[in-house]
Design brief:
about 300 residues, alpha/beta, 10 helices, Rossmann fold, 8-stranded mixed β-sheet
Protein backbone atom coordinates (compact mmCIF):
# COMPACT_ATOMS: atom_id res chain seq x y z
CA UNK A 1 0.00 0.00 0.00
CA UNK A 2 1.26 3.46 -0.88
CA UNK A 3 2.02 5.65 2.16
CA UNK A 4 -1.02 7.86 2.75
CA UNK A 5 -2.75 9.99 5.35
CA UNK A 6 -5.62 7.51 5.70
CA UNK A 7 -6.81 6.30 9.13
CA UNK A 8 -4.87 3.42 10.68
CA UNK A 9 -8.02 1.39 11.47
CA UNK A 10 -8.37 -1.75 9.37
CA UNK A 11 -11.68 -3.45 8.59
CA UNK A 12 -10.17 -5.77 5.98
CA UNK A 13 -7.97 -8.11 7.97
CA UNK A 14 -5.19 -10.44 6.86
CA UNK A 15 -5.78 -13.79 5.24
CA UNK A 16 -7.90 -13.00 2.19
CA UNK A 17 -8.04 -15.31 -0.82
CA UNK A 18 -7.48 -12.69 -3.53
CA UNK A 19 -4.74 -13.03 -6.12
CA UNK A 20 -1.47 -11.22 -5.30
CA UNK A 21 -1.74 -7.59 -6.39
CA UNK A 22 -5.54 -7.68 -6.60
CA UNK A 23 -6.92 -4.18 -7.18
CA UNK A 24 -10.30 -5.21 -5.78
CA UNK A 25 -8.78 -6.17 -2.42
CA UNK A 26 -6.90 -2.87 -2.19
CA UNK A 27 -10.09 -0.97 -3.05
CA UNK A 28 -12.13 -2.69 -0.34
CA UNK A 29 -9.45 -1.87 2.21
CA UNK A 30 -9.61 1.85 1.37
CA UNK A 31 -13.41 1.96 1.14
CA UNK A 32 -13.89 0.38 4.57
CA UNK A 33 -11.45 2.83 6.13
CA UNK A 34 -13.89 5.54 5.00
CA UNK A 35 -17.12 3.74 5.90
CA UNK A 36 -16.11 2.04 9.15
CA UNK A 37 -18.15 -0.46 11.15
CA UNK A 38 -21.49 0.97 10.03
CA UNK A 39 -20.96 -0.61 6.61
CA UNK A 40 -23.09 -3.62 5.65
CA UNK A 41 -22.00 -5.31 2.43
CA UNK A 42 -24.07 -7.14 -0.16
CA UNK A 43 -21.88 -9.07 -2.62
CA UNK A 44 -23.09 -11.13 -5.60
CA UNK A 45 -21.19 -13.77 -7.57
CA UNK A 46 -17.84 -12.19 -8.41
CA UNK A 47 -14.20 -12.30 -7.30
CA UNK A 48 -15.22 -10.80 -3.96
CA UNK A 49 -17.55 -13.73 -3.36
CA UNK A 50 -14.36 -15.82 -3.13
CA UNK A 51 -11.91 -13.37 -1.53
CA UNK A 52 -13.28 -13.63 2.07
CA UNK A 53 -12.61 -17.38 2.01
CA UNK A 54 -14.80 -20.39 2.89
CA UNK A 55 -16.63 -20.69 6.21
CA UNK A 56 -15.51 -20.39 8.98
CA UNK A 57 -12.80 -18.05 7.67
CA UNK A 58 -13.46 -14.35 7.23
CA UNK A 59 -11.44 -11.27 6.40
CA UNK A 60 -13.98 -8.49 6.92
CA UNK A 61 -14.87 -6.79 10.19
CA UNK A 62 -18.31 -5.77 8.88
CA UNK A 63 -21.48 -7.78 8.12
CA UNK A 64 -21.61 -9.45 4.71
CA UNK A 65 -24.58 -10.85 2.78
CA UNK A 66 -23.95 -12.99 -0.31
CA UNK A 67 -26.58 -12.75 -3.01
CA UNK A 68 -27.28 -13.99 -6.54
CA UNK A 69 -25.42 -12.58 -9.53
CA UNK A 70 -28.20 -10.41 -10.90
CA UNK A 71 -29.92 -9.04 -7.78
CA UNK A 72 -27.49 -6.75 -5.94
CA UNK A 73 -29.77 -3.79 -6.63
CA UNK A 74 -32.74 -5.61 -5.12
CA UNK A 75 -30.64 -6.80 -2.19
CA UNK A 76 -29.41 -3.33 -1.20
CA UNK A 77 -32.93 -1.97 -1.66
CA UNK A 78 -34.29 -4.44 0.88
CA UNK A 79 -31.42 -3.95 3.29
CA UNK A 80 -31.80 -0.17 3.14
CA UNK A 81 -35.53 -0.24 3.81
CA UNK A 82 -35.14 -2.87 6.53
CA UNK A 83 -32.57 -0.88 8.47
CA UNK A 84 -34.72 2.24 8.07
CA UNK A 85 -37.74 0.43 9.48
CA UNK A 86 -35.70 -0.72 12.49
CA UNK A 87 -34.20 2.72 13.05
CA UNK A 88 -30.69 1.37 12.52
CA UNK A 89 -27.95 3.70 11.29
CA UNK A 90 -26.26 1.42 8.75
CA UNK A 91 -24.41 2.23 5.53
CA UNK A 92 -25.67 -0.27 2.97
CA UNK A 93 -23.12 -1.05 0.26
CA UNK A 94 -23.58 -3.13 -2.86
CA UNK A 95 -20.14 -4.34 -3.98
CA UNK A 96 -20.18 -5.98 -7.40
CA UNK A 97 -17.92 -6.51 -10.39
CA UNK A 98 -18.42 -5.11 -13.85
CA UNK A 99 -20.17 -8.25 -15.07
CA UNK A 100 -22.61 -8.21 -12.17
CA UNK A 101 -23.23 -4.49 -12.67
CA UNK A 102 -22.97 -3.43 -16.30
CA UNK A 103 -24.38 -6.71 -17.61
CA UNK A 104 -26.25 -9.18 -15.41
CA UNK A 105 -27.19 -6.76 -12.62
CA UNK A 106 -28.06 -3.66 -14.64
CA UNK A 107 -31.85 -4.13 -14.50
CA UNK A 108 -32.06 -4.48 -10.71
CA UNK A 109 -29.57 -1.61 -10.22
CA UNK A 110 -31.58 0.69 -12.49
CA UNK A 111 -34.78 -0.17 -10.63
CA UNK A 112 -33.13 0.40 -7.25
CA UNK A 113 -31.77 3.86 -8.10
CA UNK A 114 -35.07 4.84 -9.76
CA UNK A 115 -36.89 4.05 -6.51
CA UNK A 116 -34.43 6.23 -4.60
CA UNK A 117 -33.28 3.85 -1.86
CA UNK A 118 -30.41 4.96 0.36
CA UNK A 119 -27.29 2.93 -0.47
CA UNK A 120 -23.85 3.08 -2.04
CA UNK A 121 -23.38 0.86 -5.07
CA UNK A 122 -19.78 0.07 -6.01
CA UNK A 123 -18.75 -1.38 -9.35
CA UNK A 124 -15.19 -2.59 -8.90
CA UNK A 125 -14.26 -2.84 -12.54
CA UNK A 126 -11.60 -5.35 -13.56
CA UNK A 127 -12.98 -5.12 -17.10
CA UNK A 128 -13.97 -8.79 -17.58
CA UNK A 129 -15.55 -11.77 -15.81
CA UNK A 130 -12.33 -12.57 -13.96
CA UNK A 131 -13.72 -15.02 -11.39
CA UNK A 132 -14.92 -17.43 -14.07
CA UNK A 133 -12.04 -17.28 -16.52
CA UNK A 134 -11.46 -13.79 -18.03
CA UNK A 135 -14.50 -13.61 -20.33
CA UNK A 136 -15.35 -10.24 -21.88
CA UNK A 137 -18.02 -8.00 -20.32
CA UNK A 138 -19.61 -4.83 -21.64
CA UNK A 139 -17.04 -2.97 -19.50
CA UNK A 140 -14.12 -4.63 -21.31
CA UNK A 141 -12.29 -1.91 -23.27
CA UNK A 142 -12.06 -2.03 -27.03
CA UNK A 143 -9.20 -4.12 -28.46
CA UNK A 144 -8.65 -6.08 -25.23
CA UNK A 145 -7.79 -9.76 -25.27
CA UNK A 146 -10.01 -12.02 -23.17
CA UNK A 147 -10.67 -15.75 -23.37
CA UNK A 148 -13.85 -15.01 -25.36
CA UNK A 149 -12.17 -12.36 -27.51
CA UNK A 150 -8.95 -14.22 -28.36
CA UNK A 151 -6.13 -12.73 -30.39
CA UNK A 152 -4.19 -14.86 -32.84
CA UNK A 153 -3.67 -14.61 -36.57
CA UNK A 154 -7.10 -12.98 -36.79
CA UNK A 155 -8.15 -9.88 -34.86
CA UNK A 156 -10.84 -11.30 -32.57
CA UNK A 157 -10.15 -8.80 -29.78
CA UNK A 158 -13.02 -6.99 -28.04
CA UNK A 159 -15.00 -4.84 -30.47
CA UNK A 160 -16.86 -1.75 -29.31
CA UNK A 161 -16.13 0.85 -26.65
CA UNK A 162 -16.58 0.37 -22.92
CA UNK A 163 -20.06 0.90 -21.43
CA UNK A 164 -20.31 4.24 -19.61
CA UNK A 165 -21.82 3.20 -16.28
CA UNK A 166 -21.34 6.58 -14.58
CA UNK A 167 -23.17 8.23 -17.49
CA UNK A 168 -26.00 5.70 -17.18
CA UNK A 169 -26.32 6.33 -13.45
CA UNK A 170 -26.18 10.12 -13.85
CA UNK A 171 -29.00 9.80 -16.41
CA UNK A 172 -31.08 8.37 -13.54
CA UNK A 173 -30.49 11.72 -11.76
CA UNK A 174 -29.00 10.19 -8.65
CA UNK A 175 -27.46 12.60 -6.10
CA UNK A 176 -23.89 11.32 -6.37
CA UNK A 177 -21.69 9.34 -8.76
CA UNK A 178 -17.91 9.16 -8.96
CA UNK A 179 -14.89 7.33 -10.34
CA UNK A 180 -11.97 6.13 -8.21
CA UNK A 181 -8.91 3.89 -8.25
CA UNK A 182 -6.64 2.50 -5.51
CA UNK A 183 -3.66 4.31 -7.07
CA UNK A 184 -5.15 7.53 -5.63
CA UNK A 185 -6.26 6.33 -2.16
CA UNK A 186 -6.98 9.77 -0.66
CA UNK A 187 -9.25 10.61 -3.59
CA UNK A 188 -11.10 7.31 -3.15
CA UNK A 189 -11.35 7.79 0.61
CA UNK A 190 -12.87 11.27 0.22
CA UNK A 191 -15.42 10.03 -2.28
CA UNK A 192 -16.62 7.23 -0.02
CA UNK A 193 -16.84 9.66 2.88
CA UNK A 194 -18.91 12.04 0.77
CA UNK A 195 -21.14 9.24 -0.53
CA UNK A 196 -21.84 8.11 3.03
CA UNK A 197 -22.96 11.63 3.96
CA UNK A 198 -25.53 11.89 1.14
CA UNK A 199 -29.02 10.37 1.31
CA UNK A 200 -30.30 8.39 -1.64
CA UNK A 201 -28.60 6.11 -4.18
CA UNK A 202 -24.89 6.69 -4.84
CA UNK A 203 -22.68 5.00 -7.42
CA UNK A 204 -18.88 4.66 -7.37
CA UNK A 205 -16.99 3.19 -10.31
CA UNK A 206 -13.59 1.81 -9.26
CA UNK A 207 -11.01 0.83 -11.85
CA UNK A 208 -9.58 -2.35 -10.34
CA UNK A 209 -6.52 -3.71 -12.20
CA UNK A 210 -6.32 -7.52 -12.35
CA UNK A 211 -2.79 -8.95 -12.79
CA UNK A 212 -3.79 -12.38 -14.21
CA UNK A 213 -6.60 -11.00 -16.38
CA UNK A 214 -4.75 -7.98 -17.71
CA UNK A 215 -1.46 -9.86 -17.99
CA UNK A 216 0.95 -7.75 -15.95
CA UNK A 217 3.25 -8.55 -12.98
CA UNK A 218 1.45 -8.56 -9.62
CA UNK A 219 3.70 -5.82 -8.17
CA UNK A 220 2.63 -3.39 -10.93
CA UNK A 221 -1.03 -2.93 -9.90
CA UNK A 222 -0.68 0.61 -8.56
CA UNK A 223 1.52 1.66 -11.46
CA UNK A 224 -1.01 0.36 -13.99
CA UNK A 225 -3.90 2.10 -12.21
CA UNK A 226 -1.94 5.36 -11.99
CA UNK A 227 -1.10 5.24 -15.68
CA UNK A 228 -4.77 4.70 -16.49
CA UNK A 229 -5.45 8.10 -14.91
CA UNK A 230 -2.37 9.87 -16.26
CA UNK A 231 -3.16 8.70 -19.81
CA UNK A 232 -6.80 9.92 -19.62
CA UNK A 233 -8.07 6.37 -20.03
CA UNK A 234 -9.76 6.58 -16.61
CA UNK A 235 -10.29 10.18 -15.43
CA UNK A 236 -11.10 10.82 -11.77
CA UNK A 237 -14.25 12.89 -11.34
CA UNK A 238 -17.52 13.14 -9.44
CA UNK A 239 -21.05 14.23 -10.31
CA UNK A 240 -22.99 15.71 -7.42
CA UNK A 241 -26.62 16.62 -8.17
CA UNK A 242 -25.80 16.94 -11.85
CA UNK A 243 -22.69 19.07 -11.37
CA UNK A 244 -19.52 17.55 -12.78
CA UNK A 245 -16.10 18.08 -11.20
CA UNK A 246 -12.75 16.59 -12.17
CA UNK A 247 -11.04 15.67 -8.89
CA UNK A 248 -7.55 15.15 -10.30
CA UNK A 249 -6.02 16.97 -13.25
CA UNK A 250 -2.51 15.70 -14.01
CA UNK A 251 0.18 18.32 -14.44
CA UNK A 252 1.54 16.16 -17.24
CA UNK A 253 -0.23 13.50 -19.27
CA UNK A 254 1.46 10.40 -20.60
CA UNK A 255 0.84 8.79 -24.01
CA UNK A 256 -1.84 6.13 -23.87
CA UNK A 257 0.67 3.69 -25.32
CA UNK A 258 2.56 3.69 -21.99
CA UNK A 259 -0.57 2.34 -20.31
CA UNK A 260 -1.50 -0.16 -23.02
CA UNK A 261 1.95 -1.68 -23.51
CA UNK A 262 2.24 -2.57 -19.80
CA UNK A 263 -0.50 -5.17 -20.27
CA UNK A 264 -0.35 -8.43 -22.14
CA UNK A 265 -4.00 -8.13 -23.13
CA UNK A 266 -3.02 -5.25 -25.46
CA UNK A 267 0.32 -6.69 -26.58
CA UNK A 268 -0.84 -7.37 -30.13
CA UNK A 269 -2.25 -3.91 -30.88
CA UNK A 270 -1.05 -2.35 -34.14
CA UNK A 271 -0.03 1.29 -34.15
CA UNK A 272 -3.20 2.47 -35.89
CA UNK A 273 -5.28 0.97 -33.05
CA UNK A 274 -3.12 2.73 -30.44
CA UNK A 275 -3.58 6.02 -32.31
CA UNK A 276 -7.35 5.49 -32.33
CA UNK A 277 -7.39 4.91 -28.58
CA UNK A 278 -5.28 8.05 -28.07
CA UNK A 279 -7.64 10.14 -30.20
CA UNK A 280 -10.65 8.76 -28.35
CA UNK A 281 -9.36 9.39 -24.83
CA UNK A 282 -8.26 12.91 -25.83
CA UNK A 283 -11.74 13.65 -27.16
CA UNK A 284 -13.47 12.18 -24.09
CA UNK A 285 -11.23 14.21 -21.77
CA UNK A 286 -12.23 17.42 -23.54
CA UNK A 287 -15.90 16.44 -23.27
CA UNK A 288 -15.45 15.89 -19.54
CA UNK A 289 -13.84 19.32 -19.13
CA UNK A 290 -16.72 20.93 -21.04
CA UNK A 291 -19.22 19.24 -18.72
CA UNK A 292 -17.31 20.56 -15.73
CA UNK A 293 -17.37 24.08 -17.18
CA UNK A 294 -21.05 23.94 -18.10
CA UNK A 295 -21.88 22.65 -14.61
CA UNK A 296 -21.03 26.10 -13.27
CA UNK A 297 -24.25 27.28 -14.91
CA UNK A 298 -26.40 24.42 -13.64
CA UNK A 299 -26.83 20.63 -13.47
CA UNK A 300 -26.04 18.49 -16.52
CA UNK A 301 -28.04 15.31 -16.45
Amino acid sequence: MVKTSLPREEYLISGHFACPGCGAALSMRIALKALGKKAVLSIPACCWAVIPGPFPYRNLEVPLLYTAFEVTGASVSGLSEGFKAMGEDAIVVGWAGDGGTADIGLQSLSAAVERGHDFIYVMYDNEAYMNTGIQRSSATPEYAWTTTTPVGKREFWKKGWKKDMVGIMVAHRIPYAATATPAFPEDMYRKFKKAASIKGPKFIHILSPCPPGWRFPEEKTIEVARKAVLSKVFPLYEVENGRWRVTFKPARFIPVEEYLRMQGRFRYLPEDAVRYVQETVDREWERLLRKEELSKEGPIW
